[in-house]
Amino acid sequence: MTVTTTAACGGRATDGTADSARDKVIDRAADEEAGEAADEAVGMDVVQRRLAEAQGRVVAALVAGAEPPEGFDPERMRAQAASLISKRRGIVARIRPDVVAAAGGDLAAEFAAYARARTAPPPDYRTDADDFAAWLRERGRLPDPPRRARWWSRLLP
User: Fold this and answer.
1) Taking a C-beta distance cutoff of 8 angstroms, is the pair 142, 99 a contact?
2) Backbone dihedral region of 140: left (phi > 0), alpha (psi from -120 to 50 degrees) or beta?
3) Nearest to 131 by CA among 144, 118, 140
4) Which of 22, 37, 82, 115 has the most CB atoms lying inside 10 A of its own CB?
5) How far apart are CA 57 and CA 99, in angstroms?
6) How far apart are the C-alpha atoms of 97 and 124, rounded to whole Å?
7) What would the DSSP string read from start to end of 93-135?
8) Within a 10 A sphere around the Cβ of 62, how many other Cβ atoms?
9) Closest residue by Cα to residue 82 from 114, 117, 112
10) What is the pLDDT of residue 24?
11) Which residues on adjacent β-strands are paired with residue 4?
12) Radius of gyration of the CA atoms of the chain, in A
């Protein structure tokens, strides 16, 4: 038995056999597109992983003193790394003026040595400033902070 449809085919009269053949072609094309999309997704995962690894090498060269990746100008990478250390030093100086006073004229050299000694910068500037203060304290350049009296010690006789 053949079914005639008009509404689904834009007003033309068709029989069911043409619909099923067209559906098979559409299904086959959809399967091929899905296979290509899956291949593309796998390819994109590889590309994204390689890009992430390359970015990691660039960051390591900038903040951890690693060798610059192939294709990068070593002198420019060193200049950019020095610029990043200078930026961190300036922010630390604003957060902890006591550290600047303790380091004196050697602040740039001391901070550069501190930054080189670390494999990665701390997660935030406050931690960076406190870590640098501790680093100076370990070297005898910054006195221990005075102990603060506990609030409840005022109540004792």
Assistant:
1) yes
2) left
3) 118
4) 115
5) 32
6) 17
7) HHH-HHHHHHHGGGHHHHHHHHHHH-SS--SSHHHHHHHHHHH
8) 19
9) 112
10) 67
11) 15
12) 33
Residue 14 backbone phi and psi in degrees, to 5: -130, 165
Backbone dihedral angles phi then psi of residue 40, each to the nearest 5 degrees? -65, -40
Q: Which residues of the chain, if any, have pLDDT below 70?
A: 1-22, 24-25, 29, 34-39, 41
Exposure string over 119-134, b if 16+ CB within 10 A, otherwise e: eebeeebeebbbebbe
Residues in the chain: 157
Give the C-alpha distances (Å, rounded to integers) separating 54 from 49, 111, 136, 149, 150. 9, 28, 34, 51, 51
3-state DSSP call for residue 15? strand
Determine the pLDDT at residue 82: 94
Centroid of chain to Cα 88: 17
